[in-house]
Amino acid sequence: MWCFGLSLTLLVSLLACRKPADQDVVQQLTAQLAQAYRAGSRAQVLLLADSLCQIAPERPEGYVWKAALLRELGQLSQAEALLYEALARAPAHPEARLLLARVVEQQGHLRKAVSLYNQALRQAEGLLRAAAWLGLGHLYQALGQADSAAVAFLEALRLDSTLAEAWDGLRQLYETEGRYPEALQAARKALRWAPEKVDYQLALGMLLARTGQTAEAVAMLRAVVAARPWQLAAHYQLGRLLNALGDAAEGQYHLQQAEAIRCLAPLLTQAELEVARHAEALSLLKLARRLLAQGYAAETRQAVEAAYALQPQSSALANLAGRLVGMPLEKRPC
Predict the structure, then answer these.
(1) What is the dihedral of CA 198, 217, 225, 171, to 10 degrees?
(2) Structure pTM?
């Protein structure tokens, strides 16, 4: 499912470029909001957004900024209410409409989200229009409408050929259809425009392995496990490729790592069941599960240790924490 990463960054950038025409203080607050958001100062973003709503309650910007933060924190119903407040003040505000579409989509109301994305398309221009097409592409993909998804991703790329997320969306569609040459080309384009994205490195590495380009696949997958030491699929595929190349020692190491990571999932389930009545500990374990699925090592361990600190009497948590201590946080040097 779509992770909303690049698209949200694009939306925030466009929102920051909106300059209120009548009040210097509103303009200054909006600039400070953008700076605080990019710096990761979420508490400051919330304070500034509240201030903006109080100083200029008739304007939509404060409501949209606050909604963007609450959406990121998983408070979807509150974000939705704020976005309707923004649209009541500015019905033609495309950023608010687009963000509302995302919030509604995250709540599982996919058909309603399609309608909102189409409304955003009628209001949006330039890069914001590309972001709306990108959102529609992911939504059609989730609905199983592959042809419509492909059209939407291609429209987004027509407007901005550097949208790595749209290239990756096409890669997923082509790969599902078994169109591996086109999938490989799209995967390379995605990584070209977002070389820091480990998920794109993984996708390209797996496609290279599938298409028999072993040497390049090994190099790519080694980069993946260096960045995400507990990436199960990368370890498993890397182990198989290295064994096939005759490097039994390193190949076996990666296969053992893959098996050790695979065994963590049932331990996580046991711990979740044992602390089910303790919301904060359970939330931390669910975070640990998401981090583990993406291959993060230190972050997964930290989430589990925090849950264990809250529920030290849990034997399942003790077992899980103990197992994690014995696993490496970094890739073994070759």
Answers:
(1) 30
(2) 0.82
Could you give the domains of the chain? 1-160 (1.25.40.10), 263-325 (no CATH)
CA distance 68 to 66: 5
- Contact present, 232 and 248 (Cβ < 8 Å): no
Residue 130 is encoded by which pair of tokens? Answer: 């590309």
Residues sharing a CB contact under 8 Å with residue 214, sequence separation 6 or more, in sequence order: 208, 241, 244, 245
Answer yes or no: is pLDDT of 18 > 80.
no
User: Which tokens is 149 given?
Assistant: 């998804």
CA atoms within 13 A on the CB side of 69: 21
C-alpha 200/C-alpha 251 separation (Å) is 23
User: How much is the mean pLDDT over the chain?
Assistant: 90
Query: What tens digit of pLDDT does each residue of 80-93 get?
Result: 999 999 999 999 99
* DSSP, residue by residue, 226-240: HH-TT-HHHHHHHHH
Q: What is the pLDDT of residue 17?
A: 52
Q: Say how far apart CA 36 and CA 40 lie, in whole Å.
A: 6
Residue 177 and residue 238: Cα distance in Å, rounded? Answer: 24
